[in-house]
Amino acid sequence: MVEEIYIEAGERMDKVISAFQRELATLRAGRATPALLDRIEVNYYGTPTPLIQLAGITAPEPRLLVVQPWDKSSMGDIEKAILKSDLGLTPVNDGNIIRLSIPQLTEERRRELVKHVRKKAEESRVSIRNIRRDANESLKQLEKSSEISEDEWRRAQDEIQELTDEKIARIDELLQAKEKEVMEV
Does residue 95 contact residue 79 with C-beta atoms inside 8 Å? Predict the structure, then answer.
């Protein structure tokens, strides 16, 4: 039973880290990456459809994204969706593909992005700590119902704490790497 609690907590913490990594991938750090367009939904024949399902997205240069729709009739809708997004990018349509030039970030914008990244990292840390709390409560219930001894309970709590420390350290590594990437000129 203790092992199940430990495994479940580890899996939930890994999901928090994965969500944090996806969030970081969608932030514009001055480099072109197809993940920037992951959150864009296009109104395709009246249905909100993720852009990734309507077009191939590539980054042929460090500051350029190329969107190549599979259905040429959707180009206007894709352009509108990109313009409406919070990315601040202006699409250039040549009839076959849409080019998105990624402008250099200003110092002020870089600082805002770092604040945003730190906020998301703290939210992830809080989620991991909440998972630790839930696991410890489950362990406490086992101890109260006499399914495990007090020694086993303390040992399991220490293992959960080690797991928590390990996952928070991973969040911090990701945070530092993204901060470095954002502040790089």
Answer: no
Please say whether the beta carbons of 35 and 28 come within 8 A. Answer: no
Distance CA 137, CA 152 (A): 14
The domains located in the chain, with CATH, are 2-25+106-183 (1.10.132.20), 34-101 (3.30.1360.40)
Inform me whether the pLDDT recorded for 36 exceeds 70.
yes
Main-chain phi, psi angles of 50, to 5 degrees: -60, 135
Q: What is the mean pLDDT of residues 52-67?
A: 88
Neighbours of 32 (CB within 10 A): 22
Q: What are phi and psi of 159, to 5 degrees?
A: -65, -40
The 10s digit of each residue's pLDDT in 95-117 is 888 998 887 778 887 888 889 89
Q: What is the pLDDT of residue 185?
A: 62
With cut-offs at 50, 70 and 90, classify the pLDDT of residue 27.
Answer: confident
Q: What is the pLDDT of residue 28?
A: 65
Residue 6's contacts (CB-CB under 8 Å, 6 or more residues apart) are 135, 156, 159, 160, 163
